[in-house]
């Protein structure tokens, strides 16, 4: 056998043969559960019809087979196992060999109808003793509720089942319909309670998972988005639900330039490595082009860069940059620049965040542009968490060591946007404000550094021009006040030393 030298021989870095933890193999779910289920635990999964209970339990079951466990799947529904398996065959985790070798399907429906809960429990006990499964699913628990004559009888059944699977070290999932706010005795007796649900917002529907109770696990609280794909369930823990890691002390002397001498001078030499900068301004003012200059400067130095946008396709973006002398095509071709485009489709913000952070880590990027943080807001099912989401995402990007440029839209006309609509700028180290100014019956672009936490900067308001030769900054404006608000107190006049043509 050839051994990979990269594998550690340190026992502390190897998984224990039996550490009492039962992983699910479902992307993101083990993070929500604090690592997985406890071996021998009894867990209740509730959800309305079509929520994904059967797919989730089957997906975990096939994963446990791959881990070497014997799996027992007991149904309390009249539906045949052949029909159940035919639905699962379309999913990538399905394995015919597992069905014949390590996964046993048993119907308990007739025993429940004939002998009640005691007969059903006897069937479970006999099957576990003969097959010795390490993981079990009981599908259709609603039938058990209906066949119990009293709550005391159902509680006794759950208590005996819990004691039996614990002694047999057989981790067990019970699948039941959603009970709403109505209490059931099994809620207090099981080791964990997980709810699968759907959430409506306008015309959109999103799937959510919430762990209401989980003994012996420090799980992530609250609701988390999940979707059902050909690979089964994929869950996306809320990015703000887990604590951020400690970050290294930034080196304020290490700066990254935009490759745009006049603008770099305004920033005192560039932005601090690992910092986040927001370019705020109305549509068409030059936010995207300025951010692309930042990526071009990095690519020319051989750095890895990532562009993550919502509005312009890669082809259109590259052509737009080329029209003003910003060459990105060669950087895209040789992999120095990766372009991720997400048009207006129904993706959850946590799904987008996972893709963004993974893109940065995979490419080991040192520079990142997120063009249009409003795209995250438009993807949010629950907009009330958007501020916390952006704050957590900023921390994740700092942990990845990437220097980030965000662009944020503000109204084209009227007063500056109210604080409620400008979100990203409030939690970033640097803010660059870009706006149109009316002078002599014409519109001019202006740019100013509003905030730079880690160093001195030029606080003057400069004029920005864009032409086929690129981006240019000149002295700009003299005399007027109130330019940032869009309402100067006197008519603005261009500096006499400003050589730029009106653009």
From TrEMBL:
UniProt-listed Pfam families: ATPase
Spans traversing the lipid bilayer: none
Keyword terms of this UniProt record: Hydrolase, Kinase, Phosphoprotein, Repeat, Serine/threonine-protein kinase, Transferase
Protein name: non-specific serine/threonine protein kinase
Polar residues biased stretches: 1-12
MF terms in GO: ATP binding; hydrolase activity; protein serine/threonine kinase activity
Top-level EC class: transferase
PANTHER family with a match to the protein in the record: CIRCADIAN CLOCK OSCILLATOR PROTEIN KAIC 1, PTHR42926
Limits of the KaiC domain: 20-249, 254-487
Gene3D superfamilies hit by this protein: P-loop containing nucleotide triphosphate hydrolases
EC numbers on record: 2.7.11.1
Taxonomy of the source species: Bacteria, Pseudomonadati, Pseudomonadota, Betaproteobacteria, Burkholderiales
Chain spans, region Disordered: 1-22
């Amino acid at each position: 056998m050839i051994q990979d030298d990269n594998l550690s021989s340190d026992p502390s870095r190897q998984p224990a043969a039996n550490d009492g933890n039962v992983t699910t193999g479902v992307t993101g779910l083990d993070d929500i559960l604090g690592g997985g289920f406890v071996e021998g635990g009894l867990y209740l999964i509730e959800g309305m019809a079509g929520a994904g209970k059967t797919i989730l339990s089957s997906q975990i079951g096939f994963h446990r087979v791959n881990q070497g466990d014997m799996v027992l799947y007991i149904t309390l529904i009249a539906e045949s196992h052949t029909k159940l398996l035919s639905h699962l065959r379309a999913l990538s985790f399905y394995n015919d060999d597992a069905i014949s070798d390590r996964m046993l399907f048993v119907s308990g429906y007739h025993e429940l109808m004939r002998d009640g809960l005691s007969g059903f429990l006897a069937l479970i006990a006999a099957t576990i003793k003969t097959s010795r499964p390490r993981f079990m699913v009981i599908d259709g628990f609603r039938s058990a509720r209906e066949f119990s004559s009293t709550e005391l009888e159902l509680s006794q059944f759950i208590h005996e089942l819990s004691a039996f699977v614990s002694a047999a070290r057989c981790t067990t999932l019970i699948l039941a319909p959603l009970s709403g706010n109505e209490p059931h005795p099994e809620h207090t007796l099981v080791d964990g309670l997980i709810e699968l649900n759907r959430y409506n917002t306008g015309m959109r529907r999103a799937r959510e998972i919430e762990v209401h109770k989980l003994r012996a696990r420090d799980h992530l609280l609250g609701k988390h988005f999940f979707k059902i794909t050909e690979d089964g369930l994929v869950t996306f823990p809320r990015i703000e639900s887990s604590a951020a890691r400690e970050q290294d002390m930034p080196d304020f002397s290490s700066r990254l330039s935009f490759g745009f001498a006049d603008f770099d001078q305004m920033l005192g030499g560039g932005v601090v490595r690992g910092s986040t900068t927001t370019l705020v301004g109305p549509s068409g003012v030059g936010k995207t082009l300025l951010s692309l200059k930042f990526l071009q400067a990095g690519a020319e130095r051989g750095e890895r860069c990532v562009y993550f946008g919502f509005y312009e396709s890669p082809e259109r973006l590259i052509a737009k940059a080329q029209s003003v002398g910003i060459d990105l095509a060669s950087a895209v071709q040789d992999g120095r620049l990766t372009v991720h485009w997400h048009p207006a489709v129904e993706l959850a913000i946590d799904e987008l965040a996972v893709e963004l952070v993974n893109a940065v880590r995979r490419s080991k990027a040192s520079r990142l542009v997120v063009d249009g943080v409003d795209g995250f807001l438009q993807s949010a099912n629950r907009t009330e968490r958007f501020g916390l989401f952006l704050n957590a995402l900023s921390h994740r990007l700092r942990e990845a060591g990437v220097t980030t440029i965000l662009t944020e839209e503000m109204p084209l006309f009227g007063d500056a946007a109210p604080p409620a609509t400008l979100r990203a700028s409030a939690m970033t180290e640097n803010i660059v404000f870009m706006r149109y100014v009316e002078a002599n019956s014409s519109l001019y672009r202006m740019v100013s550094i509003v905030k730079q936490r880690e160093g001195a900067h030029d606080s003057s308001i400069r004029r920005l021009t864009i032409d086929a030769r690129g981006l240019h900054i000149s002295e700009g404006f003299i005399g007027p006040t109130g330019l940032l608000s869009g309402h100067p107190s006197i008519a603005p006049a261009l500096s006499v030393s400003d050589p730029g043509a009106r653009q």
